Amino acid sequence: MAVVGVPPRPRPRTATQAPQPVARKLRHILVVTDKQGRRAISLEAALLSVGRASDNAIVLESDTAADLHALLVRVPDTSTPGGYRYRVVSGNDSGFHGTPPIVVNGMKCASHDLLSGDRLWLGNDAKVSYHVAALTDAELAAHVRPASFRRVKSAPAKPPVAQSKPLPTAALTMSDLMANFSKNETLFR
């Protein structure tokens, strides 16, 4: 018998009604800070162009970044849980000569295998940090946008050779990534 105004008593859960664990997947994320503000971008393609030109997969709002400043190349790495990592390669429209320079963790370089937590300067006013984190599909959709697929202006003469370094991973939430980025942002000043 139902009493008016009193909600029904919840039924106890059975084993078949137990909540399912939320699946977390390793995700490769770039947190970009430039004139457009701060945004998190999911890296999913094998090759992504980064620069000021609007036809790049990742467009930088920067006065000092080149039209095609760098490429992000997914390279196989069997020592990592996901089986791959990303390498950043400096480049421009006339080829890949290490110019314009990219700065990774305070050091100028033409190419670098990224590790979770690496900080990059692309020009004088575009800061990027790279993270590998275990995120659910819902967290990814709520906080991270995918990189746009666009053509790559130039291709490297030789594909980069994969270096075998372990890729550290952590069970970070998107909030952890953004908070960590904010806390360590002074590294760029």
Please describe what this structure looks like:
The protein has 189 residues and is mainly beta. The chain contains 2 helices and 12 strands. The strands form 2 sheets. Strands 8-7-10-11-1-2-12 form a 7-stranded mixed beta sheet. A hairpin with a 7-residue loop joins strand 5 and strand 6. The longest helix has 10 residues, at 174-183. The chain is elongated. Residues 153-172 and 181-189 have low confidence and may be disordered.
Percent of residues in helices comes to under 10%
Beta percentage is: 25-35%
Strand count, sense and barrel status of the largest sheet are: 7 strands, mixed
**Sheet/helix structural class:** mainly beta
User: Span between N and C termini?
Assistant: 69 Å
**How many strands in all?**
12
Number of helix segments? 2
**Which oligomeric state applies?**
single chain
Q: How big is the Rg?
A: 21 Å
Order of helices and strands: EEEEEEEEEEEHEH
Mean pLDDT, nearest integer? 75
Task: Describe the structure concisely for a colleague.
The chain has helices at 137-143, 174-183, and strands at residues 25-34, 37-43, 47-51, 58-59, 70-76, 84-90, 102-104, 107-109, 111-113, 119-122, 127-135, 145-146.
